[in-house]
Write the structure tokens for this entry.
Amino acid sequence: MRLAKAKYPDEKRKLVEDALHRFFPEKDKYPDVIYGAMNHSLFSGGKRFRPVLNLLVAEVFDSDIDKFLPTACAIEYIHTYSLIHDDLPAIDNDDLRRGTPTCHVMFGEDIAILAGDALFAESFYLVASTQNSADSSRIIRVVNELAFAAGVRGMVSGQVVDIQSSRKRVDSETLHFIHSHKTGCLITAAARAGAILAGASSPDLDKVTEFATQLGLAFQITDDILDVVGETDVIGKRIGSDERHKKATFPSIFGLEEAKKKAKVAVDDAIVALGGLEADTKSLIELAKFVYERNY
Ligand code: GRG
């Protein structure tokens, strides 16, 4: 008997999509070109995985999640900023993202750099100016989480080691550092921010952290796998980019089959971590299964 495929929470994705439009800076106040570049990268698709995760975690502790949308959208701003910079000629030099030409291809490198910078700053502006439905100590903790994950303590260092490891043989410890920092930190921050805003207890926050750490690892392993076996039309970016750049990835170090097994172990571990929560975690279990099964 074939088990049903995990369903992506499209209703949460729609909630995020609509809120991104609502919170986006007003068109007439800024130079057309920067508005156009930010708009292009933010609204050309994307699963909205990190804000969806943020909302699903928040919902475990507080059913009224609309009030957390500014933070969810801020996380998507940070993610989109990292994609714009990751695609730049100086980094991965990719020309296709989310099924459309990358920001620098459309608007030039100078404007793409600035669009990334603008989205990054805008993310903190959005939290500080609009996330006013939670108590201020929780909001400061959220700012701490996001800044930690996006900067040198997280994503930036992961990207640095990723660049340095290109064309080199790396051990699994280094590969783990790259994945957990480049991708894992923001995914973990998204989950933790949801739990913090919704008032989770400290022991529950620890369980959410373990869940998200394993989920983030699985997410990057499946990203590596899709770069080998995915379809450009479906994933919206060119496959084979890691091979072209001789990147250290799970398939390049362990082979495709072993990489798939490692993704499954990480997803199973993520689900086990949820077992300690005395709440309904079905939606998070479904999301974890989606991460393993995804083809986009
Ligand atoms: C920009 C903070 C910052 C630092 C510069 C460029 C960079 C350092 C870091 C890049 C981090 C990065 C792009 C990691 C890859 C993460 C990843 C798996 C991206 C794909 O995410 P999906 O599948 O994409 O969620 P969509 O398009 O669905 O949003």
